[in-house]
Amino acid sequence: MVDPVSAVDASASVPSNTLNLSGLVRRLFASETWVLALSVIYFLVLLPFAPDLGNLENLELIVHNMLPLCMVAVGQTLVLLTGGIDLSVTSIIALCSVGGAWSMTSWGMPGTAGFLVGGLVMVAIGALVGLFNGMAITRLTMPPFMVTLATMMFGSGLAVYLTRSQGIVGLPESLAAFTQEGVGPVPYALLLVAPVALVCHGFLTRTKAGRWLFAIGANAKAAQISGVPVKRVTIMAYVLCGVMAAFSALIYTGRLETGSPVLGQRVFLDVIGATVIGGTSLFGGRGSVLGTVYGVLFITLIDNSLNILGLSNFTILMVKGTVILFAALGDGLRRRRLGGGR
Amino acid sequence: MITRRQIVGAGLVLPLAACRPRSGGRLRVGVAFETLQTEYWVASFDIIRAELAKNDIDTIEAISDGDANRQLEQIKSFVARRMDGVIVAPKDAYTVIPMIKSVNRKDIPIVIYNRPPAENPYKRVTVGTDNFGITRNTVLYLCQLARKAMPSRAGKKHKALILMGDLGDINAVGRRDGFDAAVKENADIVEVVTRVPTEWNQEKALAGITNGLQAHPDISMVFTSSDFLLPSVVSALKNAGKFHPAGHPDHVLLGAFDGDSMAFRMLREKTLDADGVQDAYAQSRLVVQSILSMRAGEKVNPLVLDPGLVVHQENLSQESSRMWGAQLVLESERASRG
Q1: CATH topology of domain B4-123
Q2: What are phi and psi of A321, to 5 degrees?
Q3: Candidates B14, B82, B97; nearest CB to A40
Q4: What is the Cα–Cα distance from A63 to A47, expressed in whole angstroms?
Q5: Which of B8, B15, B76 lies nearest to residue A54, judging by beta carbons?
Q6: Contact A8, A23 (CB under 8 A)
Q7: Class of the CATH-defined domain B131-277
Q8: Do the domains B4-123 and B131-277 sit in the same CATH topology, yes or no?
Q9: B contact test, residue of A17, A39, A165, A267 with most B CBs within 10 A
Q10: Domain extents for chain B?
C-alpha cells in the first residue's frame, strides 16, 4: 500500500517550479477537494453543450437547490460516520412539514411568530424521531437499517393519515420570503444553512464528541474499551440527523408554501449520493462536512445540467445511480489504496 | 505547484466568466409534467409536443416523477433559462402556486394543464377537464342502461361500486362528485354499496374491488375514476365470475374515465359500456393557443374547461376520432398491417 505521507515527502525533493502531477493527483484524491475539482471540470465540459448552465440565474438556482439537500446530507454524514444509516430522513421531512405547517396555521399566531414556533415544532419532531431511532439501535441493539426503515414506513404512513393526503396551506408569508428570497444572489436560507454547517464542521473537527463519532465508526468495540460512551454518542448522532432533516423540511415547506405529507419522498438517493461522493465512507469512520457540501454541489449540478440538456427524469435517475455507484466503488478503492479512517 | 486555493478560486471565477446571453431563434416552451405514469399522461404529453411543433415551437421537457419539490426546481430552471412559455401539469392544486409566482416574476406566460390551481392572485391560464360534468354524463348513461334492465331485476336496485382516485387530487374529487350526482338523480334504481379509495394505485384498486365483490356478490354496476385502473377491475370481475360482455344476463355495467387504449378495446369487445373521454387534442390546441395569445398580450380566459365526451357502444365509430386511446390503437394496428 502506498503511504500518502511518503508521497508528499517525495514531492518535497522536486524543484519548486515544477508541477508534481502524481503527488497532486494523490493529494487531490485523498482530500475532499477532488469533488470540487470534478464539479468545475464537469461544468466546463458541459457548458458548450448547455450554455444556459452558465447564466447567473441558473447559478443562483443551483445554490438555492443545494440548501435543503445540504442540511439533510450533513445530518446523514454524522450518522454514517458512526457506521450507521438513517433511512427515515424522508419521512422525518414529511412529518416535520405537516407538523410544522399545522402549528403555523392552527395556533393563531401572527406571521413571523407563527413561522418561528412552527420551525421549533419541526425541530422537536425531528429530534424526537432521531431519539427513537438512536434508542432503538443502541438500547435494543437493532440494526440501523431495520430500525430506520421501519421508522420511515411508519412516519410516511402517519403523515398521510394525519392529513388524509391533503396539503396544509395558508403558511406565513415570512416563511415563504425566508426560503425563496434573498439579498441579490444570496438566499436568506443560507443564513440558516451556512452557520449550521459550520457548527457541524467545528463539532466534528474540534470537539471530543465529534472525534468520538469517527472512533465509533472506525471500531466501535475499540472505542468502547477506550472509554468512548458509544451508546450516548450514537443516540446523539441520530438526534442531530433528525434535527438537520427538520431544517431541511423547513426550507422545502417554505419553497412549496405547503405542508405536504409526501414531501421529500424521493430525496434519499440524493442524500446518500452526496455524502458518498463527498468522501463519507458507508463503512463508517471517514467523512467530513466540507466533503458532503462538495458532494451536494456535484449532485445538484448533475441534476441541473441534465435537466438543461433535456434528458428525461428517468435518464437522470440512471445517470445519478451510476455516479453514486462509482462513488461507492471509489470509497472502497480509497480505503484499500490510501488507508481507512480519517 | 497548483494549490488547493487555486482550485477553489477557479471554481468560483470560471462560472462567472462562462455567463453568456441567450441567442435568438425558435420559441422554446418548457413542458413540466408531474408524471408519465399512465397512458393518458404519455399521450397528452406527446399531443402537446406535436401541437407545439406544428406552431414551430421547441419543447423542453421536464418530468418530476411525482415530486412537487423537483417540479418546482424544474419550473425555476425554465425561468432561469428564459423560456418563452411554460406548461405545467402539477401534482396538486397548492404546490403549483409558488411555481406560478416564480414564472410571473419574469412575465413568462404559464398554462396549468389538467389540474386547476387553488385560488391565487397570480396570472395564469388553466386548461382543464370538466371532470364533474363528464363523469356525471357517463354515469347517467350507465343509469339509462340500468333502467332498461330493471324489468328483468324484479324491482331490485342495482348495487354500485366506485373506484375513487387520490382524494388529494382535484380531478379525483370532481369525478367522485360527478358519480354521486348522477347516482342521486337515479336513486330509485341505483344504490352505492362500496367506495374504494385507490390513491391511484393498482394494488389498492384490486384489493378494494375484490373485497367489495366478496361483500356484495350482487354488485351490478362498477365505475372506475380512471381507465388505468381497468386491469384491476377486469381481474377482480373475472375472479368473481362476473366479467361478461353486454347482452350476457350476468353482465356488470361498467363505466370508466379517460379514453385510453384499453377502454377503446373493451368498448369494441362490448365489455365496457361507457367511457368519459378527455379530449386531449382539443385541450392541447387550447394550451398552445393560450401561450401564443398571452405572448401577444391578448386577453385570455383564465379558465378553460374541456367538456369532453362520453363514448359508448352506440357512438363508438363516430366518436373514436376524438378518443385519443382509440387513435393509439388504430395507428398501432395500421402499423402492424404494414
Answers
A1: Rossmann fold (3.40.50)
A2: -60, -40
A3: B14
A4: 17
A5: B15
A6: yes
A7: alpha beta
A8: yes
A9: A165
A10: 4-123, 131-277
User: Which residues on chain A are in Cβ contact (under 8 Å) with B98?
Assistant: 176, 180, 255-257
CB atoms A61 and B64 under 8 Å = no
Contact check, Cβ <8 Å, B19/A257: no
For B238-274, the pLDDT digits (tens) are 999 999 999 999 999 999 999 999 999 999 999 999 9
What nine digits make up the cell of B100?
406560478
Q: What pLDDT sits at residue A316?
A: 86
Mean pLDDT confidence for A201-228:
95
Q: Cell numbers 356484495 correspond to what residue?
A: B216
Cell of B333: 394496428
B74-113 pLDDT, tens digit per residue, is 999 999 999 999 999 998 889 999 999 999 999 999 999 9
Long-range CB contacts (< 8 A, 24+ apart) of B285-289?
Answer: B285/B51, B286/B127, B287/B48, B287/B51, B287/B87, B287/B111, B287/B113, B287/B127, B288/B48, B288/B51, B288/B52, B288/B55, B288/B57
Q: Does B9 touch chain A (CB under 8 A)?
A: no
Across the range B325-335, mean pLDDT stands at: 92
Contacts of A336 (CB under 8 A, 6+ apart): A1
Element (H, E) at B224: strand B219-224
